[in-house]
Amino acid sequence: MTKSTIEKDAIAARISRIVENLMESDRWFREKLDLEEIVNYISDLAKAKFSPEQLQAIDDEDLSERIDKIMVTHAVGGMLDDLTPEEMEIFDAAVEGRW
In angstroms, rounded to a whole number, what is the distance separating the alpha carbons of residues 9 and 17? Predict the structure, then answer.
């Protein structure tokens, strides 16, 4: 196993641990998000934006806050999918200031 592979595995495990902790502490996350899907998404996003060294330099509290924001965005984004066409029209009108 190469150093790069070991670093990537450690990062994925760290992200997975943080996501699991956030989901354990928030029922809303458990209802709205799939654990494996969100871990994979955040891991891929982190690998694309940061080097393994940069990710290791982010402390757990900061990384948890960043991951929490990503999870909230995904959970809220999925809420619009549950709206009926009528509810979506009301939502659009409210956003546009027509309602």
Answer: 12
Residues 58 and 77: their CA atoms lie apart, in Å, by 26
Q: What are the strands, taking DSSP E only, across the chain? A: none
Query: pLDDT tens, 52-71?
Result: 889 989 999 999 999 999 99
Q: How many domains does the chain have?
A: 1
**Contact, 67 vs 18, CB < 8 A?**
yes
**CA separation for the pair 52, 69 (Å, rounded):** 21
Using an 8 Å Cβ cutoff, are 33 and 75 in contact?
Answer: yes
Q: Which domain holds residue 39?
A: 3-96
Cβ neighbours, 10 Å, residue 1: 6
Give the global pTM: 0.76
CB-count burial class (<10 Å; 0-12, 13-18, 19+) for 93:
exposed
Local structure of residue 80 (DSSP, 8 states) = G
